[in-house]
Write a structure and sequence with these properties.
Shape: globular
Distance between the termini: 18 Å
Number of strands: 15
Largest sheet: 11 strands, antiparallel
Radius of gyration: 22 Å
Number of helices: 4
CATH class: Mainly Beta
Structural class: mainly beta
Order of helices and strands: HEEEEEEHEHHEEEEEEEE
Number of domains: 1
């Protein structure tokens, strides 16, 4: 859904916007769609979680029972088909979810359930609108879908109150709510982006507990690769803790409840450290993302519902990937 800019048009825009230097050093990154042409992407979100119930103890004193390790992952394919295209305005996209696979594993003797409400996304559809710069303008159907499967994360019996089982809904949100974020967050898209130029944005941090954490991302146009499929913009990214989380981001749950399992004993998660890097390949000539890979680690402390004189330390190593299949 890229505005077709001719050379005279680009020159005019640069003159009006006050571009510095020759325009040939600038790349115009815009998202392009073609009528009835579906794009199918594979999304994978995986993480390893370590919970240290007594982080102040030395390694020699710490027993194996004080440390718990878990792994969980979600894999899904989604088709995106443009149903109304306006290269100068809003384009409407229809998304169709394929089968969703969730895997969980504990490195202790305890077995974890693999049931997850995100598996209910299979065959679900939603539409959203996107402008020529990749900004999603209408999230309403996606937001409704997130809340719908969020309601399925709770146990049917309410004898012990509302209890929420583990889910990977925020992982689904992280892959869909921030599509084309690297392109959409460019402050002055009509001026183009030069190699070495950086810009900032915010991305969500999916976690196994109920939390609203954001990471600040710095994007940098690292290089332009010439390939048979077109010119590929290599966009590097680095991550750090964000001071705030946008209120517009979706919340899958509402009301009062408590979590089952390990994180049901914790509250008030405090981020101590967040760092990581990523890389995205964006096809400039085709106007579409080819793939991305995001890796980061977040360390946080938690307080307990019943004070026991210790603060559990949680370390999460997260990986998010997207790959164009067709």
């Amino acid at each position: 859904m890229r505005i077709k800019l001719t050379i005279p048009t680009i020159l005019t825009i640069c003159m009006l916007a006050g571009c510095n230097g020759p325009f040939s050093k600038k790349e115009f990154l815009t998202v392009d769609f073609h009528q009835a042409q579906a794009l199918r992407y594979k999304f994978v979100s995986s993480r390893s979680i370590k919970v240290d119930w007594d982080p102040m103890e030395t390694v020699t004193k710490r027993g194996t029972e004080t440390v718990r390790k878990y792994r969980e992952s979600m894999e899904m394919n989604i088709n995106y088909t443009p149903i109304e295209i306006d290269p100068y305005g809003l384009t409407t996209i229809k998304a169709i979810c394929g089968p969703v696979q969730v895997k969980r594993k504990s490195l202790s003797k305890k077995r974890l359930s693999n049931d997850d409400p995100v598996t209910l996304l299979h065959k679900k559809t939603y539409t959203f609108t996107v402008d020529p710069t990749g900004k999603i303008k209408d999230y309403s159907q996606l937001d409704s879908l997130v809340k719908q499967i969020g309601g399925r994360a709770f146990r049917p019996s309410k004898k012990r109150g509302r209890i929420k089982d583990p889910d990977m809904i925020t992982d689904f949100t992280a892959t869909q709510w921030f599509l084309w974020d690297s392109i959409a967050s460019i402050e002055n898209p009509t001026k183009g982006v030069s190699i070495g130029q950086s810009w900032k944005s915010k991305l969500s941090v999916p976690t196994p507990m109920v939390s609203r954490i954001a990471r600040e991302v710095t994007y940098t146009l690292d290089e332009i690769r010439q390939t048979e499929k077109g010119r590929i913009a290599v966009i590097k990214s680095s991550y750090s803790p964000a001071k705030s989380t946008p209120k517009s981001w979706p919340i899958p749950y509402s009301g009062q409840f408590r979590m089952s399992g390990t994180f049901g004993f914790m509250k008030s998660f405090l981020v101590l450290e967040l760092k990581g890097q990523g890389e995205e390949l964006f096809n400039i000539d085709q106007g579409r993302i080819e793939q991305y890979n995001q890796d980061y680690e977040v360390v946080m402390d938690a307080s307990l519902l019943m004070p026991l004189g210790t603060s559990p330390r949680i370390t999460i190593k997260q990986n998010l990937t997207m790959q164009l299949l067709n």
